[in-house]
Amino acid sequence: MKDEVTNTDEQPGSVEERLEQRSYELGERVKELSCLYDISQMLLETRSDELESVLERVVGRIPAGWQHPELAAARIRVGEVVCQTDGFAHTPWVQRQPFTVCEGVEGVIDGVVEVAYLDEPPERGGQVFIDEEAKLIEAIADRLSEAVRRAQAEERVRFQATLLEAVGEAVIATDLDGRVLYWNGRAEALFGWSEQEALGRNILEMNTPEDARERAEEILANVARGERWSGEFEVRRKDGTSFPAQVTSSPILDEAGRLVGVVGISRDLTERKAIEAQLRQAQKLEAVGRLAGGIAHDFNNMLTAIKGNTQLLREDVGGDEELIEHVGEIEQAARRAASLTRQLLAFSRQQVLQPEKLCLAEVVGAMKPMLERLIGEHIELDVRPQAGLGFVEADEGQLSQVVLNLVVNARDAMAGGGRVVVELDNVELDRPCEGVPVEVPEGRYVVLSVADEGHGIDDEVLNHIFDPFFTTKKDGSGLGLSTVYGIIKQSGGHVQVETELGEGTALHVYLPRAEVPPEATNPKPTKPPKRPPAAHAHTILVCEDEPVVRRLASRALSRQGYRVLVTKSGTEALDVLERADISIDVVVSDVVMPELGGLELAAIIDERWPQIRVLLISGYPSRDVLDADALEIATPFLPKPFGFDELCQKVAELLDVDG
């Protein structure tokens, strides 16, 4: 036994020394583990945007894990980010551990951990750095690599989430049973369910109307089998209202290719549907308008002959009462026909307008007595103009027609009596504006609103109320609201309808507000008209391809004492003008003629005979046809149908220009 004890005691050092060594080593291991634990905790929740501040804390903790912390300094580099403790330098006593962040990219060093002794440390067992320190620095490097990889992955996830939030469309992910797993901010805005409310709920129960449930289940089942689906679908909000949406649903696969869920993207089509409906309406009106314009051209030529010859006939019948009565009936029928033609041109936006700066309150105020008589005593007319109402630029006659048509329409909606409210307001729109038509751009407007207390308009009728010739009245022409629509559109405005069954209807007319100088609000007194010049001293050249209009113009002007020459084309008119023996004072020319039209003729006259006045007439008042501004001449215009007195007055005004 003694020999055995002696053998044991032959090991270097005493028991106390060995215990002291063991205690020291244990302390070093505890110090190393404590260092590694603290660093692991620091790196546990590292975000990519916080990486540098975390590395500052980590590098400050490293020296305390080494044998000689009073001599140690540390340095960490991750990519271009470098953090180090004070005084770090590359001395002969440096321990390095590189690490990579990008897995699968062999040989690419993305980072390094370094520990250096700034002075020569005492060696233990012939080593500056012991094996445990090599393992510690390797463990720190591994944790740094993992932390940076995790931070980068989380940053990618956050970036992808930001992209999904910025998409502007509802993005929803569900599991294969339809339970919501992801719900972005746009989905919350579109459907009304918050993210907290939506997560875990069944998507079909939340967003699918009852009558579309079977179709939705079929689509979801197909996508859950790996198919992709895209199309229009009626979806439901939290409040129960529904809207059309463009929905795209795609399967979600995991890394192994297994189907784990469905992702859907939904876009609200309400605005697009409204724009498409407006486009269809505009195209329909344009097509009918082209037809109406063509009819109006021929119709106005005939009406001009009827009106003019009736006026000539009235002068010839003398005191025969029966003949005078017949002539009056013809004149009345011609006026009604002319009014119908004007309405056709109004809804097709081909009416020749004479815009001026107007106060809508004054226009409505001047019409109020007439409107009250028109709607009858059983209906109250309530006009509410806003103080300081802005001006608009429009044709006063056409604007009066709009007010009249809207009030009459409101009256007809209340057979049993009620109240018509006419409101006039200044409005400034800043997109997007709730309740305002999507085609109305931002800006400053004067809004005319006419509301009734009638029965409202159902959806079927609402889709057609601006269609020409569409009417629900037994004796209606179907041109009232289509005329309003055409006039307002031609004036640069917009029309909106608000209606509720059983409650009534309001039509809102948006007209751009016009800037008016202060002096415009104080109209100058009008001068009395001058006496027309003596007719017998002047020669008039009439250029008209329609025989009945040509004969009427010749008779009417001849009766006033003018010398009248007639031609049936612009080319013939030029031949007459070039004759040296004839002096022409005024040329009355149709606009649309074969060979040489009235505008071209007017341009030639303005260049070669500037002293000759030109009056253009037409039964086809298209703005494209009558754009005299393009010819840089200010040519007076008289639309057909006109009476012989209107023609004679216009010619007299032209001859009196210099008088």
From TrEMBL:
Residue span, Histidine kinase domain: 294-515
Class of enzymatic activity (EC top level): transferase
GO molecular function: ATP binding; phosphorelay sensor kinase activity
Domain Response regulatory residue range list: 539-655
Residues with the 4-aspartylphosphate modification: D590
PAC domain boundaries: 229-281
Record key words, sorted: ATP-binding, Kinase, Nucleotide-binding, Phosphoprotein, Transferase, Two-component regulatory system
Pfam families cross-referenced by the UniProt entry: HATPase_c, HisKA, PAS, Response_reg
EC number(s) on file: 2.7.13.3
Domain PAS: 163-227
Entry-linked Gene3D superfamilies: 1.10.287.130, 3.40.50.2300, Histidine kinase-like ATPase, C-terminal domain, PAS domain
One Gene Ontology biological process: regulation of DNA-templated transcription
The keyword Amino-acid biosynthesis appears for this protein: no
InterPro entries: CheY-like_superfamily (IPR011006), HATPase_C_sf (IPR036890), HATPase_dom (IPR003594), His_kinase_dom (IPR005467), HisK_dim/P_dom (IPR003661), HisK_dim/P_sf (IPR036097), PAC (IPR001610), PAS (IPR000014)
Phosphoprotein as UniProt keyword: yes
Catalytic reaction equation(s): ATP + protein L-histidine = ADP + protein N-phospho-L-histidine
Cited PANTHER family: C4-DICARBOXYLATE TRANSPORT SENSOR PROTEIN DCTB, SENSOR HISTIDINE KINASE
NCBIfam families attached to this UniProt entry: sensory_box
Name of the protein this chain belongs to: histidine kinase
